[in-house]
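task queued by scheduler; priority normal; single chain, no ligands, no partner chains; default sampling; output format set to C-alpha cells
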Amino acid sequence: MGNIKKIISELPMSSGVYLMKDSTGCIIYVGKAKNLKRRVKSYFYQSKNHSPKVVKLIKQIKDIDIILTDTEFEAFMLECKLIKELKPFFNSMMKNPLAYVY
C-alpha cells in the first residue's frame, strides 16, 4: 500500500486515463477522470461505499499508470479504446462498446 500512496501523491489534478495493474503487471482496470488525483484517491479513502467488485479490485492493485489527455472527452474516448483492446478483467461491463452510453 505504501507504493500506491506514493503514486497517488504524485498524480496530477488533470484529466486522463488510469491503468490499474496487479502484482504480475497485468492491467486489471482502465478508468477515466476529470481529475486523476481525486478519482484514483477515492478508491482508497472512501471504501465504505464501494461495491464488492471494487473492494476486490482494490486488494489486487499493485501499480497505477496514467495517460494524460487535454480534455475529459478525450479521456472518455481513450478509455473506451483501451478497454476494447486490453479487455481488463474488472471492466467486464464495458467490453462491449454498445453497452456504454455517453
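post-processing summary
- The first helix runs from residue 2 to 10.
- The radius of gyration is 13 Å.
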